[in-house]
Structure formats: structure tokens, C-alpha cells
TrEMBL record:
Parts forming coiled coils: none
Organism, as annotated: Pieris macdunnoughi
Localization: Membrane
This protein's name: Complex I assembly factor TIMMDC1, mitochondrial
Membrane topology: Multi-pass membrane protein
Annotated Gene Ontology cellular component terms: membrane; mitochondrion
PANTHER family assigned: C3ORF1 PROTEIN-RELATED (PTHR13002), COMPLEX I ASSEMBLY FACTOR TIMMDC1, MITOCHONDRIAL (PTHR13002:SF1)
Transmembrane segments: 132-153, 179-206
Amino acid sequence: MFRILNKKILFGTTLRLTPAAIIPFFNTPNKNDIDNLKTNPKDGPITGWERVRQMFTVNEDDVISIELHNVIQASLFGAFVGVCYGGFLKSKDAYISFLENNQATIFKSTFEAKRKLQDYVTIAFAKGAVRWGWRLFIFTGMYTLIATTISIYRDKNSVLEYVVAGAVTGSLYKVNLGLAATLVGAGLGAALSLIAGIVIIGILKISGVSMADIRRSLYGLKEMREEQYNQGVEKHAKEKHDNLTKHHDQLVESKGKTKVDEL
């Protein structure tokens, strides 16, 4: 029962967050992408540093840029994957360990045995989720932020930002293990990012879809969700207000205006 419930939660949440999974890899030029990017007052194009600075600024409505929003979404998705991976991995080990270490244990009832097993597995799940969740949150956020920043500075998309982001992130992930481990992490991260970058750019070339369109579509989904939420809140508040008004009118009609004011 516990495993079935975990699978349902994992698959259901994954489907809801699927759009965010695209974010860490699709970091393209924002040439026609950013509505809140300002043009240079001069006739010439804005510089790379100006584009980067605008990425970390908010518009007149205090809304962050689309790129920074994508970085945050990618970080949250990485945290979600880390929570699921670490939690289910540790809970599985805890389940097996509990059965092996308590074969000769005498419990008062079946209910007590199931409760202790559930508590043991839940604690293990929480420990594994915390351990892997914050790591993948930082790893994914750092990778996406570096790749996106390089792409915006260069104003184009290529394999370079993937390789640099992978090398930097891989080296920082292993920096506490010494120089040799740092170099190995940088090389491995660069190699994996090179493969991923080639595949992604190849798919984009074949499909003919720019990442500007994809980023706008993902951001549009966010705006649609917020609009639906605001409409729901406004509708609920209006219905509640109408009910209060009707109740007030009924009191006025039955008791009179003077008595209502005295109340």
C-alpha cells in the first residue's frame, strides 16, 4: 500500500511539473523573447552586460524576468526530483532493513508492527528527501543560471554555455574532495553537457522551433494559471459579498432599519 501511494504521488506530481523539466536545458538567446528587456536609448544594440543586468531586474510591475523565472522553476524541479529520488531510495532501504532486523521481535499486535514500520520508513524518507533535495536544488539552479547568463550575454544559443555550465557546476560539486576530484568533476560535467547540448540544439534545428517560443509558451502558462486563480478568488469574494448583502436586506426588511442600526 505504501509503495503504491508513493508511486501515485511521484507520477502525479511529475506530470504537473513536466514543463519545468525542460527549463534546465533550453537556454537560448532572448533576441525576440523578452518583453521586459529594454532597448538601448542609443541607436545601437544593447551590450551583453546590459542584457545580463536586465535579466536580474524587475519591471514596473515588480515581476522578475522570464529567464530568471525559468531558473527558479528549474531549481524547484531539481529539488522535487531530489526529494523523490532520495526519499524513495532511503525508504526502500529502511523497509528492507526493518524487516531484516525485526524478524525475531515480538510485537503486541499487527497494528503496532505496521505502525513502527511506517514510522521507520517515513523518517528515512524525510532524511533522504532533505539530503538529496537541497543538493539537486543548488546543482540545477547553478547549472541553469550559468548557462542562461552566458546565453544572454552572447545573445545566442550554442553548445558553449552547456559545456561551461557543466564544467563549473561539476567542479564545484566535487571541490571539497580535493583538486583531483575537482578536475574529474569538471571534465565529467563538461562531457555530459556537451552531449546534451549537441542533442538539444540538433532537435531545435530539426524541429524549427526556437527556444524563444518555448520560453514564451511556458511563461504564458504561468500567467494563465495566475489569471485563473485571480478570477476564482474574485468570483468567490463576489459570491460571499452577495450573500452578506442579501442577509442584510432580510434583516432590514424583517426588523426595520432602526433596529438593525442598534444591533
